[in-house]
Amino acid sequence: MNERPIAYLQDVTKVYGSGRNTVAALRGINLQIDPADFLAVVGPSGSGKSTLLHILGCMDIPTTGSIEIDGEPVPRENERKRTQLRGEKIGFVFQAFHLLNELSVRENIELPRMFLRRNDGKKLPTAEELIEKVHMPLAVLDRRPTEISGGERQRVAIARALSNNPSMLLCDEPTGNLDSANSTAVMGIFDSLNHAGATIVVVTHNPEVAAHAARTVSLKDGRIVGAVGA
Question: How far is 139 from 141, CA to CA, in rounded Å?
Answer without folding.
Answer: 5
